Write the structure tokens for this entry.
Amino acid sequence: MAAVLITGADEDAEIARRLVRAGHTVRFAPLDGASAESLDALDVLDVLVNTGGAAQETFEGAVESTARILQTYLPLLERSAAAVVVNVSGPQDSPSAAAVNIVTVQYAKAFPRMRINAVEQDTGAIVRMAQIGQDGPTGGYFDATGTPPW
């Protein structure tokens, strides 16, 4: 059982339902990533589903939002024995998707103990990647079918 935090609002309720059915504890936090309540309520964080970049329309906004949320929750993730970060990306051909992918690769290199990946906005892909183990991939981009051919 993993402690999962989903940034964003209740539109991610289906993701939460699927993760709870799989036995995980799920909480939500606002996209600003700075909520004291969300930090105080957690002892350790195993999985972060980071929707900050997907909510942005510009490259700069997606970089800033994705990185800010990661920085906020990194101390909790570092306490986990098997930390996973799922950075939810915008539409595949958008500037925000490119930004999320770049941030993902850089954080995956900087934190090799964690599994940090970017995922398209697809409930199944997000849930699948949120449950990968320590032997799973890191620094990649995944869609509904797995790894895109490009």
